[in-house]
Amino acid sequence: MQERSRRPEFRDSWAEDENDKELDERAPLTREQVQALREEYPLLSPWRVVAVQAAVGLVVAALAAVVTGRGAIGWSALYGAAAVVVPGALMVRGLAKTRDKQPGTQVFGFLLWEFIKIGVAAAMLVAAAVVVRDLSWPALLVTMVLCMKVNWLALLWQGRARARKKRS
User: Fold this and answer.
1) Backbone angles phi, psi at 132, to 5 degrees
2) Which residues contact 96 (CB under 8 A, 6 or more apart)?
3) Once rounded to an integer, what is the mean pLDDT over residues 27-41?
4) Which of 87, 105, 108, 156 could join 101 via S-S bond, C-beta 3.0 to 4.6 A?
C-alpha cells in the first residue's frame, strides 16, 4: 500500500482571529485626538507641490540653456515643465471645488480632473512641435520627468520636517 503524504491543514487567512476582535473594540477618536493628529501630521498643500514643480522646471530650463548655449534647449525644457505644471495646477484648482462634497462626489471629481489633467498634458505634448521652434524632445522629456519626481521630493520633505518637529 502506498502511504499518502501528510499535508498541513489549510487555514483561511480571512477567518476570524482573536486579534481581530481586539481591533473591533477600539473606540473612535475624540475631537481632541483628531486635532492632535492633524497638528502632528499636517497636510502638504498641493499648491506648494505645483509651485515647487514650477521652480524645478525654471531651474532646469535655465541650466539647460546655459550649459548647452542653445536657447531652443531652454525653451524645450521650459515647455516640458509647463506640460506638467499647467495640468497639475488645473487639477488642484478643480479638486478644490469638490472638497466639501460627499465622498462619492469627491471620488468622481478626482477621476474627472485626473482625466482632464492627462488630456491637457497629452494635448500640450502634441502641440509642442508647433509651439516650440527647434524643439528638443530629450530636453522636454527630461524636464517633464524631473518635474513629476518633485512629488516624491515633497513627500520626503514632509517626512523630514515631521522628524525635525519630533526632535524639538
Assistant:
1) -100, 120
2) none
3) 81
4) 105
Q: What is the pLDDT of residue 147?
A: 94
Q: How confident is the model at residue 101 (pLDDT cuts 50, 70, 90)?
A: confident
Integer Cα distance of 153 and 4 in angstroms: 57
24: exposed, middle or buried (C-beta count within 10 Å: 0-12, 13-18, 19+)?
exposed
What is the pTM for the complete model shown?
0.72
| Residue whose entry in the numeric block shows the C-alpha cell 482571529 | 17
Residue 157: which of 37, 55, 79, 80 has the closest Cα? 55
Nearest by Cα to 76 from 88, 61, 86 = 61
Grid coordinates belonging to 27:
473606540
The answer to whether the CB of 64 falls within 8 A of the CB of 143 is yes
- Which amino acid is it at 105? T
**Tens-digit pLDDT profile for residues 140-156:** 999 999 999 988 887 77
Residue 133 and residue 55: Cα distance in Å, rounded?
23
The residue written with cell numbers 512641435 in the block is 129
Interatomic CA distance for residues 68 and 71, integer angstroms: 8
pLDDT tens readout for residues 45-79: 889 899 999 999 999 999 999 999 999 999 999 99
Is residue 136 within 8 Å of residue 76, measured between CB atoms?
Answer: yes
**Rounded to whole angstroms, how far apart are CA atoms 11 and 41?**
38
